[in-house]
Amino acid sequence: MTNHLDSAPCFTIAQFSDSHLFADKQAMHHGADVYQNLAKVCQQLASNKAIDIVVFTGDLTQDHSVESYHRFKALVETLLCDKTVYFLAGNHDDIDVLNDVLTGKPFNQAKSFLQGNWRFHLLNSKSATPAGYVSIEQLSELVSDALNSSANNSNAENSVSDDSSLKIVKADIELFQFCFMHHHPVDLGYFIDRHGLTNHSEFWQCMNNWRSLKGIACGHVHRAFEIPAQSGQRNVPVYTCPATSIKFARDTEQLIAESLQPGYRLFDFFANGEIKTQVVYLT
Q1: How many CB atoms lie within 10 A of CB 258?
Q2: What is the pLDDT of residues 166-213, one digit of tens each?
Q3: Which residue intervals of the chain are DSSP H helices?
Q4: CA-CA to 246 of 20 to 30 Å: which in 1, 20, 26, 112?
Q5: Is the pTM of this model over 0.70?
Q6: Which residues form the Calcineurin-like phosphoesterase domain (predicted)?
Q7: What span, in angstroms and rounded, lies between the C-alpha atoms of 128 and 132?
Q8: Considering only CA atoms, which of 132, 269, 252, 261 is closest in space to residue 188?
Q9: Longest Cα separation, the chain
Q10: What are the distances in angstroms from CA 110 to CA 13, 47, 85?
Q11: Any idea what the Cα angle at residue 68 is, between residues 125 and 113, rounded to 5°?
Q12: For residue 106, cis peptide bond before it (omega within 30 degrees of 0)
């Protein structure tokens, strides 16, 4: 990777997650007005002109009603009409209903997209239970595509011999990679680990071989953590996102709402592969 680009942020992506909406706009979730919480988050994201893209990382619905999906759609398409909104399913969501309802601007149903020197992947971790599972086929395909892309780009670079500016462009095509998913791929020490990713070992065996992967962001845990890479076990950091609904207490036995404040996470992705991130809680 060449370093001719400066270190200024290329773009900002906002992650929001776990809205847990109901068909009834007035319904409360553990005492939280989840519809109004989501509206506040969307309003703040809309007012931030630095945000290029928004990614929703699952658990749109709490009551599993189709009406709750339409609540989400109406709110997001009104408030985030100037953004591009990608999404994936959480354990509460029905993938078919998500794809049937979240259509048209600003929604984009793609599960991979390019931005600057980066490629972003939205992994499906939904299983038949509340816990998560990412299929080995999905992981193998991702890593294989990345390796093939890198090899092809390397060949393309070698084929250019008489245009120095084009050489630089070709060299920069080797992209940094970043994944979004719903379930957390590391244990965090409280009750939500019972519903975490069930195939940790296989997951990290694949991810650790993906040298251009720079980070993984997930929802599901209703708290913000930044877990650094751990040599020999995990080669990339893991970032978790606060929920727009409620904040879980770190109780080992049961779900307790520690706070009703909604939150979200911002990422700045730099051209040189650097990531800066911050968590925002609304008062």
Answers
A1: 14
A2: 333 333 347 999 999 999 999 999 999 999 999 989 999 889 888 899
A3: 34-47, 66-79, 95-101, 136-158, 164-172, 200-207
A4: 112
A5: yes
A6: 12-223
A7: 8
A8: 252
A9: 66
A10: 16, 25, 10
A11: 40
A12: yes
State the CB neighbour count (10 A cutoff) for residue 32. Answer: 21
Give the residue from 115, 226, 96 showing the smallest Cα distance to 177: 115
Which domains are assigned to the chain? Answer: 11-150+173-281 (3.60.21.10)
Residues 205, 223: Cα–Cα separation, whole Å: 26
Could you report the per-residue pLDDT of 225-271, keeping only the tens digit for each?
A: 999 998 778 889 999 999 999 989 898 988 988 888 899 999 999 99
Q: What is the spatial order of strands in the sheet that 226-227 belongs to?
A: 112-115, 118-122, 176-181, 213-218, 238-240, 226-227
For residue 150, the one-letter residue type is S
Give 229's contacts (C-beta < 8 A, 6+ positions apart).
235, 236, 237
